[in-house]
Here is the input.
Amino acid sequence: MDMQRKLEILADAAKYDASCASSGIDRSGKGGVGNATACGICHSWSADGRCISLLKVLLTNRCRYDCAYCANRSSNDRPRASFTAKEVADLTMAFYRRNFIEGLFLSSGVEGSPDATMERMIECLRILRCEERFLGYIHVKVIPGAAKEAIERIAGLADRVSVNIELPSRTSLALYAPDKSPDAILHPMALLHKGLSRALDEKHLHSLPSFAPAGQSTQMIIGASGESDRQIVMLAQGLYRKYAMRRVYYSAYVPVGDECRLPALPAPPLLREHRLYQCDFLQRQYGFHADEILPESHPFLDPLLDPKCVWALRNLENFPMEVNRAPLEMLLRVPGIGTTGAKRIVTARRAASLQPEDLKRLGIVLKRARYFITCSGHYLGGIPMREDILVRALTAQEKAIAPQGLFAEQTSLFAPEDAPLAFLPPASHIPLLPPDVLPPLAPAACHGV
Here is the structure.
């Protein structure tokens, strides 16, 4: 099989993995090629407006596992191919020299054993780092069940590492991915967290090799099993707290082939994935706890309103909020006011009391915020502070929701023959994990999913 055909198969097989994003890493070094500067890699935009991409590919799509949700499962009838470590390294350098990419996202099916597959991935990264002197961004997927030594070696060569949690509960994992165990997934996460913590503590010792400087991330599939949005958000919160994840990615399940183990339900809308990402930002950037976003009485997200608006409507006793007196942490809870806007308000009001016209000059978008704030005593909403009236006003602004049956696909690496070449397109009182996800742990143990 020629290289182009292999690339067509293995690049297409990698498109279902969403957990590759900007690196935020500057890998220093002299005499090498490439860079992984903080402007970002893969589907991110640099300060001068450039879209920077990476080569996203599998080492092999031959897999011994039979996960019901996976297009590369062993029982699925599809073309199979494998790269050697040298072929992936050569492809990466060829794409880089043609200015198509700035880095590599490498994952793999499990061909043979997890350790054997990891050895091939490590060899690929060794060739890039040591022989080719490639200093660009590399994100690699750790194979669940791999040995500790292999995990530590690959983390020393990559910028970011990740282990997919796959499904939101141990019940779903046993049903749809019986070849994978909770221990095999969480144990590498714990090892990576320990290594990252050690590297941070010893950061001043420059002689030490780097250890995944861009941290670790994970991904879970939503809609293939029946967990509520609350279970998913609680799990994400636990992963952030217990393993210091940089990001938790969500991937709406896309049916791939006939699979009798999965329920005969329509594919989940991308809107649900979008709402979960909004919850993720509320947790990481705005200081919300999972049970504030989705209390037990409301286990599912509202399709018509974003979760920040829903929280505000459930807590109307906090509103309207006077922008000249509210602390930063409360301004961040006003729908429509982001982190930049809240900081600008706090800075500007130190010089003088803000007036309504000042908010626009500060770049505050009042489309939603006006219903929840006062400025020097002036209420800007123009309607009564009643939940039913506010819901009607806010949902009227959400008319342009994207069609729910559509799924985004990764753009092909190969343009039509008659098309010109182009770049690739662009806390303490909350349990760490829900009971179904992670049972009580001994200090040095790691069980459950």
